[in-house]
Specification:
Length: about 190
């Protein structure tokens, strides 16, 4: 490698490091531009740190990744009643500041659909299947939200919104939120960290 080339390679490596080290750069969404274009996820993953709400002891950590027709959530949630079943949804506002997490708003619903069950007809984009806690009160999360993207800023982008765990199971039919009860934990979907 000659000296000039070596300097060029070094400069490129330095620029790449600088790009990774700073604040996450908001990607421009050219893939989503234009009427009728199908929105695509621009982020490969995101994290959620679930903190307790409504005086619960429930907390957890989730990872989100684009998968198939939407976004897949994996992780663990603890502090639940042993062998209990709980609703989990994506809510529209990434704001967990209220003690009862009411600040996160309603279910994420950019398409104006009724509440329902994912993969069973009409449903909110933020609707997902119930969690089940084991005998230790820990739920291993393996949930899917369909019709959503991760990053890119399209109307169905879940980045920056909130995940909420509820006190009761979702009955997948009561409007507007499946009769799922109090909000036990809340966390914001954060891309790029
Ligand atoms: Cu909810
Ligand atoms: Zn819903």
């Amino acid at each position: 490698m000659n000296a000039t080339l070596r300097i060029a390679v070094l400069a490129a490596a330095t620029a790449a490091l600088a790009a990774c080290g700073g604040q996450a750069v908001k990607p421009t969404p050219p893939a989503n531009a234009g009427a009728g274009a199908r929105p695509v996820s621009t982020a490969s993953s995101a994290n959620v740190v679930l903190a307790s709400a409504s005086g619960s002891l429930v907390s957890g950590k989730l990872t989100l990744r684009p998968m198939g027709d939407g976004v897949h959530l994996t992780g663990e949630i603890g502090g639940l009643t042993p062998n209990s079943t709980h609703a989990i949804h994506i809510h529209e506002k990434g704001d967990c500041s209220a003690a009862d997490a009411s600040s996160a708003g309603g279910h994420f619903n950019p398409a104006g659909q009724p509440h329902g069950q994912v993969d069973h007809g009409a449903h909110h984009a933020g609707d997902m299947d119930n969690l089940v806690a084991d005998a230790q009160g820990v739920a291993k999360v393996d949930a899917h939200a369909s019709g959503v993207t991760l990053g890119g800023g399209a109307p169905n982008d879940v980045a920056g919104r909130a995940v909420i765990v509820h006190a009761s199971p979702d009955d997948y039919k009561s409007q507007p939120a499946g009769n799922a009860g109090a909000r036990l934990a809340c966390g914001v979907i954060k891309v790029g960290r």
